[in-house]
Amino acid sequence: MAYRPDTLENAPLGRDAAYPEHYDAGLLYPIPRAANRAPLGIEEGKLPFVGEDEWHAFEVSWLNGRGKPIVAVARFRLPAESPNLIESKSWKLYLNSFNQTRFADQDAVQSTLTRDLANAAGATVSVELLAVDDAELTPQSLPGECLDDLDIDVSNYTPSATFLVAGEEVVEESLYSHLLKSNCPVTGQPDWGSVLIRYKGPKIDREGLLRYLIGYRQHQDFHEHCVEHIFTDLMQQVKPEELLVLARYVRRGGLDISPWRATPGLTPPSPLRLARQ
After folding, report:
1. pTM (2 decimals)?
2. pLDDT band at residue 2 under the 50/70/90 scheme
3. 54 carries a ligand binding annotation
4. Alpha carbon 121 to chain centroid distance?
């Protein structure tokens, strides 16, 4: 079926919606990335980063050919260069539409997900179906040094790149914080997360970096765009040789989102899941 990228005006997010039980690919609601990237100076076709949006879905179920329920955890990876992201509530509704639908086998489910999500995103989407007790879902820790014990005063809760300053010493380090919080751009609901920053370049002032990250506390945007905002500000203010920004957001509605953006050649530690997810 043909998908039409749309604005948030008609998105299911923030609206009452019936939860379908029978398969319906038309529930997926794509949203163009370009509108949120333009204010950051990011041009489509000239992305300053590579990356993916990694999703985990914990409420995935369907019926086998004999009507017996099957359950799984799904992992999806959307490339950052895809023209569209997929609105999260529409994704949840779409997955719920599998609940009372019969499929011949797991391969049929996986191929259906792969096809529908690629159509909505406008690019190839990776789909894995994991057992609910798969070892890859075991919680782990972020690598590097945590910033959260820094004793700082904070009075600004909107992102300000002026906090991002660096010295002359060139270092290679990984820093992380569990204090990331942003808000849904439609409903205003809080989105909690952790963020990892791995870089090689002028040493970033840690107190300033933590103040900057806390600045997203009242910011309203999608998870994916928050990560691109952080990446862009760090590149512009600090000018590192290498940079990776990875956010792992807490699960909401049976879905979690973990976007990452990096300079070419860097990849995130994977698989990696945190206890709050």
Report:
1. 0.91
2. very low
3. no
4. 14
155: amino acid identity, one letter:
S
Q: Is 265 annotated as a binding residue?
A: no
Buried b (16+ CB within 10 A) or exposed e, 134-151: eeebeeeebeeeebeeee
Cis peptide before 271 (omega within 30 of 0): yes
* Fold assignment, 145-262: GTP Cyclohydrolase I, domain 2 (3.30.1130)
Q: Is 88 a known ligand-binding residue?
A: yes
Rg (CA), the chain: 19
Do the annotations mark residue 89 as ligand-binding?
yes
Q: CATH assignment of 8-137? A: 3.30.1130.10
Q: Give the whole-angstrom CA distance, residue 178 versus residue 186.
A: 24
Residues of the chain with CATH 3.30.1130.10: 8-137, 145-262
Over the stretch 74-100, which tens digit does the pLDDT of each residue have? 999 999 999 999 999 999 999 999 999
Task: State the average pLDDT for the chain.
Answer: 93
| Amino acid sitting at position 103 | F
pLDDT of 175-203, one tens digit each?
999 999 999 988 899 999 999 999 999 99
Tell me if 217 is assigned to a ligand binding site: no
- Indicate the pLDDT class of residue 271, thresholds 50, 70 and 90: confident
Q: Which residues are catalytic?
A: 184, 191
Q: Which amino acid is at 166?
A: A
- Which phi and psi angles does 20 have, rounded to 5°? -70, 155
Q: Which two tokens stand for residue 52?
A: 């993916």
Task: List alpha helices for the chain, DSSP H.
Answer: 34-37, 88-96, 106-121, 206-214, 223-237
Evaluate the CA torsion angle 79, 256, 150, 219 in order and state its sign: positive
